[in-house]
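Quick note —
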Amino acid sequence: MTSRIPAALSALAVFLIGAFVLAPGPLSGDLPGGLGASLRQSFEEYWRAGQRGHLQTVVDYWFRYHLFKGAIAALLLAVLIVLGVLITRRFLHSGGPLRAVAGVAVGLLGLVALAAVMANLQGAIAPLASLFPMLPADVLAQIAPQLAAGAHPPAAVAVMVDDFALYHVAMAVIATVLALTFVAATVLAGRRFVRAERADRRSRVAIGSFAAVAALLSMVMVVLAMANTTVAADPQPAFQAFVGGGW
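Predicted structure written out below.
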């Protein structure tokens, strides 16, 4: 392995980080007045008259935004995985504290990229619900009384509650898949750790560290899946707490 490959991958990772920040907005199209103003105006139209045309335009824009952002984050994650494997192999072959630090840094950045993929996939699946945190407090305050009025809220509120539930179903599924993946990775790494020669300290440290991180991440994903499943099963109380400022 030459040093050019890790250098090229590092440069590509830097480029993708820049693209993640700068590219999704222009790629997603234009909204007159910007996202904030368009969301407020379109939501007020939807709330007063049930007209979803303008709001749907904003939701479609937000779907594309999450789609582009998630795709870039996925590419970044793939690049970081390859780069991490190459750095780990070099560390196992030659050692060196700089390689160890580089491996840890790439791993941490990979976790950030994974979180970005998860969040943007969730946002693309339920783009309306992912817009809720951007609604002004005075707009959210109009929703709370409708929820408190009874078991059968108006159609506009029911749509919001349904999308709120879908938002949490999406994360529950994503977290479950990742939990199973990390459990499998923990088992495989544990087996390799047991088979590794005791004299091969670098291999045991690298494999043991990977197994520990994978086990920790699997537990985090289990908790995340359970929490989102609980909300998805009965979304109205959680949504009411959200619009009432309880979150």
